[in-house]
Specification:
- With 178 residues, the chain is an alpha/beta fold.
- It has 5 helices and 10 strands, in the order ββααβαββαβαββββ.
- It starts with 8 loop residues before the first strand and ends with a strand.
- The protein has an 8-stranded mixed beta sheet.
- It has a single domain, classed as Dihydrofolate Reductase, subunit A (3-Layer(aba) Sandwich).
């Protein structure tokens, strides 16, 4: 049996300085221009699985032709409606949030479970399922788009434990106080 207690549940975000994780129309073209693969090396080594929402999955499919495929372990998509055509590289989950996190965490094999996407991350934060938040702050102002967190998210207290600079990107890490 895999010991899931060693890995953390980490909300992982690239964010513009004005607090957006995607621009208008879910635009992510600014992301690749500013954040290099060098910034992700340590994180990808520590990652055993990812859990994302359906919207993030659909947006990432459009970006897949332009970027390197995900290499951080198993990929899970939490959704109410799996696609008609299955994706062999993805496990679609239609269960509740806690079960989805437990399933993905188990598949991470003791490594970290990365949570991407605004909605799934906000739900995980709201339910106290997150251990850490990792934010890559890109030097750009988008003006509009998908916010880091929705206005409906209650207060979450954080404890900063790391800040580094990789190229033009500032990387901030916070433990979630429980």
């Amino acid at each position: 049996m895999t010991d899931v207690s060693t890995g953390k549940v980490v909300v992982n975000r690239v964010m513009s300085l004005d607090g957006f994780i995607a621009g208008p129309g879910d635009a992510m073209d600014w992301f690749g221009e500013l954040v290099t693969a060098e910034a992700f090396g340590e994180v990808m080594t520590a990652t055993g699985a990812m859990l994302i929402g359906r919207r993030t999955y659909e947006v990432s499919k459009g970006m897949a032709e332009q970027e390197t495929p995900y290499e951080g372990g198993a990929l899970f998509v939490l959704t109410h409606e799996p696609p008609d055509e299955p994706d062999p590289a993805v496990t679609f989950l239609t269960c509740g949030l806690e079960e989805a996190v437990a399933t993905a965490r188990s598949a991470a094999g003791g490594k970290n479970l990365e949570i991407l996407g605004a909605d799934v991350a906000a739900q995980c934060l709201q339910h106290g399922l997150v251990d850490e938040i990792l934010v890559y702050i890109a030097p750009v102002l988008l003006g509009d788009g998908v916010r880091f967190s929705p206005p409906s998210l209650d207060r979450v207290d954080l404890e900063p434990f790391s800040n580094t600079q990789v190229g033009a990107v500032t990387i901030l890490r916070f433990n979630v106080r429980k």
